[in-house]
Amino acid sequence: MTQTDLPLPLYQHIASHTIQQLEPAWLQLEKGSERIIQVGGAWQYYCQQMPQAGQQASDVFDVLIAMLPISESFELPQVQLQDGKYTDIFGLCEPHHDWLLFCDVTQNTLNIQQYHQISNDFILLKAQMKQTLHRYIGHEVSERIAQGEMQLDAAGERKTIATLFVDIRGFTPFNERHDAQMVMQTLNDYMNGMLPAILQHHGMVDKIMGDGVMAVFGVLPSENHCCLDAFHSAKQIIQAIYTLNQHRLSSGLEQLGIGVGIASGEAVLGILGSHERRAFTAIGRHVNLAARLESNARVGEILIDKTVHQTLGQSHAFTAVTLTLKGIGQSDVFSRILPCIHGDD
């Protein structure tokens, strides 16, 4: 409906209420001049002393300097003529006279300022909450929560996931043979090969334990089954370590291998720890199984449990093996070895 379609009584009602809310005041100016001819309206909202005919408008309101005389219509929004008072000023260019219309917008302006303050406070609160989460449960989880990719439930949530453990083989004797700075640099190089492969396949790093990493798949959104994501991550990790070892070999540095264990099942996901420090983690029988598989894996070997093997299907070449796992006993698992050290291709 256009303005002309509105019934006149309704239009007059709306116009009268709008005008009352704006408490308008006005100045009629001599055409092409700043000289005030007539004055009208609720000037108590705009200045302590009402303008008078014969005055120059810019002498009364400094904000109008360089805006007068009016050559074309203009609008100055939310001008503060008095402390705590805000005004929209309209300059209207007419054939015989020019006009200045003052409309009080104090309440609307204060509301907008309040909304901005609330928004700023919310942003600050969100940043503080993110820092708190980072402190208590770690950087990656706090980032995921802040982005809305996961929810925080201290009571725990049951979910079917795949858990991956990966560890650098021979790192303890390497640590004993070299100085701390070299050990730290080597560890960082290997972590830079392992961690991106986990994140790129929708995995979440649960914890880093010296030269080992625990990651969970199935917590963050993914188009793939968690077992498939975990397996592809394991392959990419080994490929990355193979490339790293190639560079280390060419530089005369010692190569180090890795072993991987993957198991899948139902786990409880939640927050563990004390008041001072908490961490997001997964607890379940298959988590222990994945850790045992990793500890038994040889250099370049991926060991998976029956559940992961059934999910992957026959398209992935694994060899069935029986291992005696500490705390678990004899277990039928599946093995695949990929080269991660040059010379073992």
CATH superfamily of the largest domain: Nucleotide cyclase, GGDEF domain
Helix percentage range: 25-40%
Seen as an oligomer or otherwise, the chain set is: single chain
Please report the number of helical segments: 9
How does the SSE layout of this entry go?
Layout: H1 8-22, E1 25-30, E2 36-41, H2 57-60, E3 74-82, E4 85-93, E5 97-104, H3 106-137, H4 139-146, E6 157-168, H5 171-177, H6 180-200, E7 203-209, E8 212-217, H7 226-250, E9 258-273, E10 278-283, H8 285-296, E11 301-304, H9 306-312, E12 319-325, E13 329-337
Parallel strand pairs: 9-11
Antiparallel strand pairs: 1-2, 1-5, 3-4, 4-5, 6-8, 6-9, 7-8, 9-10, 11-13, 12-13
Describe the protein in words.
By secondary structure, this protein is α+β, with helices and mostly antiparallel strands. It has 2 domains: 3-104, PAS domain (Beta-Lactamase); 153-337, Nucleotide cyclase, GGDEF domain (Alpha-Beta Plaits, 2-Layer Sandwich), CATH 3.30.70. The protein contains 9 helices and 13 strands. It has helices at residues 8-22, 57-60, 106-137, 139-146, 171-177, 180-200, 226-250, 285-296, 306-312, and strands at residues 25-30, 36-41, 74-82, 85-93, 97-104, 157-168, 203-209, 212-217, 258-273, 278-283, 301-304, 319-325, 329-337. The strands form 2 sheets. Strands 6, 7, 8, 9, 10, 11, 12 and 13 form an 8-stranded mixed beta sheet that branches. A 5-stranded antiparallel beta sheet has the order 2-1-5-4-3, covered by helices on one side. Helix 6 (180-200) runs antiparallel to helix 7 (226-250). The longest helix is centred in the middle third of the chain and has 32 residues, at 106-137. It starts with 7 loop residues before the first helix and ends in an 8-residue tail after the last strand.
